[in-house]
Design goal:
Length: 142
């Protein structure tokens, strides 16, 4: 029996499918820390926190995605990422992420606002994760 060298990956959100294809490795921001998933990985189900999902294709290229949270299901031959929101890293709007970060920081300082502290912290985490992905892409391009 030939050894399996790829794992099928589907990344979907409420807006639709953002990626579907084979991968040599997948990295995701699980609730307990980043996980790496290779072909023939043991079954796993975990919540995702806002952050970066990286898909390394069999030819060595990496694709970067932002997820705003959600869940990941891992089977030996398939990974499914069900994201609350998902964007290709190249589609992240840096100005919008900076504005969201600033709004969340202001909401945390202004306790009398209409947004709860938990909502502000969640928005801050999403914005910070998006900005981190943008910085990583800049380093890769230079």
């Amino acid at each position: 029996m030939a050894e399996q060298h790829t794992i099928h990956v589907d990344i979907v959100s409420a807006e639709g499918e953002i990626f579907s294809g084979d991968a040599a490795m997948v990295f995701a921001p699980a609730s307990e820390g980043e996980i790496g998933v290779a072909p023939r990985h043991a079954p796993l189900l975990s919540l995702l926190k806002p952050g970066e999902v990286r898909v390394r294709t069999p030819d060595g290229h990496e694709h970067f995605f932002f997820v705003g949270g959600g869940a990941i299901e891992v089977q030996p031959s398939k990974v499914t990422v069900l994201a609350d929101t998902a964007l290709r890293a190249k589609d992240i709007d840096e100005a919008a992420a900076l504005a969201a970060k600033q709004r969340a920081e202001e909401a945390l300082r202004d306790r009398s606002g209409h947004i709860t502290q938990a909502e502000a912290l969640a928005e801050l985490a999403r914005a910070a994760a998006q900005l981190k992905i943008i910085q990583r892409l800049r380093k890769l391009r230079s």
